[in-house]
Amino acid sequence: xxxxxxxxxxxxxxxxxxxxxxxxxxxxxxxxxxxxxxxxxxxxxxxxxxxxxxxxxxxxxxxxxxxxxxxxxxxxxxxxxxxxxxxxxxxxxxxxxxxxxxxxxxxxxxxxxxxxxxxxxxxxxxxxxxxxxxxxxxxxxxxxxxxxxxxxxxxxxxxxxxxxxxxxxxxxxxxxxxxxxxxxxxxxxxxxxxxxxxxxxxxxxxxxxxxxxxxxxxxxxxxxxxxxxxxxxxxxxxxxxxxxxxxxxxxxxxxxxxxxxxxxxxxxxxxxxxxxxxxxxxxxxxxxxxxxxxxxxxxxxxxxx
Length: 305
What we know:
Structural class: mainly alpha
Largest sheet: 2 strands, antiparallel
Number of strands: 2
Number of helices: 11
Strand order of the largest sheet: 1-2
Radius of gyration: 24 Å
């Protein structure tokens, strides 16, 4: 009883903490200084993007009517987020495991939604019907595929980072730790499947959380196997840790693609140059480059480079 209550409150705390810290991180990205925009082609939102052109090539392009294709930009971003297109084109060996890893995580997120809906069925005492059956079997397919795909992908990425000479020198200890932590969670879920092959305990525990530990809606506290408690606590630790890691790179996709890489809008307001933005750009060009490279010596300012 004490262990069950502890795990329940740990789940509440870790979830709320992760959501709050994630919101703060996104707001930090949104309030960051204006980026230094390079002329990178192609920009998917531009009409000429299919053959690599850009309206930046036109004389006095800022005076012309600029048409943007938001659909193309969204499609290109989804190709990268779902299929990891750039890694597929540049490093096919690593892509297989990376695709399994990320695809597995996506499946587990959808699985959680299916389990959540299933827990609502439990609270409403719905145990039959077409909708119930669809979500029940969907949770089985999504759960098993997601667990094993994520586990195989994570272990494969660890092995590649350790053995591939082109990758291991770029891998920091924290990269191995992150992948190992996720592998451990997946391994714990695999062991849980022996005691909960149909995710019945998972649905019951989530229903208990939704019921406010039985206070908001009367729902009896489920007696979970030890493996389920271990899995839940590992997930709680992961949620507490996640906001402080680079695994939150998924939050920055909008900023790194739409706002940085593809933002080609002219610096103008009502047909005139925006003086405030111009001054901000000049100020940003005074920042010193903190990293070193042959084309950008450390200690130089952006306007010097």
